[in-house]
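ok so i was messing around last nite and threw this chain in just to see what happens. nothing serious, just curious
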Amino acid sequence: MSRARSPRHAPGDAPRDTPAQRTFAARPGRREARRRAGRPRAAALALAGLLAALPAGPTAKAAGAAAGLCGDARLRGRALDPIEAPGRCGVPEPVRVERADGVALLEPIVVNCRTARAFADWIARTRAHARRLGFDLAAVRPSGSYQCRPLYGRPGARLSEHAAGNAVDVAAFVLSDGRVILVRRHWGRGVAGRFLRGAWRAGCASFGTTLGPEHDAPHADHFHLDVRAHEGPPVCR
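result:
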């Protein structure tokens, strides 16, 4: 049985197309080209018709709920009724936050959504810092959130940011291995002190104001975090 011989080509010559290759590569005629050009438009019109026939999507409220509290998937809790109080106190759209970025709040906080989202940012940064030190964060213990009161509770002073739902105080952290780090006891001491310093710096990157034990005596046992905007850089003391 004789074998079919491959066509020979001179050195440097490109091989000739087979009939099948030429058929595949041939340019279509004008009528065929017009027919093919019309396909994408027809497909687009058909898709538009199908989309128009679909039922309406979820409402903005339902979409927000699916995305998480305040539209942030890192936040867990629930929306509350408006808080109305004398003077300039109160929160038009308060929320109760129970978890942030997977970290439990041993005392839920009541704040506005702007503060809640900044709090989630802070928790995420604090967790990243904890992991660099070789552990993880399981819970935090807030010591204050919404409260209608003047600064430091002094009569005649301007209203605290707490009075508008703009602030959170945090006094302690619980690690994933069960250890508890207290701002009052561990600030400036060993690895726990390094963790607290990093948590304080994370506040500076997440909030407008971050106050800690080195600011003054009233903040010796907690971090104060609020979203008040300043003309210059964030206040970090």
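not much to say yet. Residues 20-49 form one domain.
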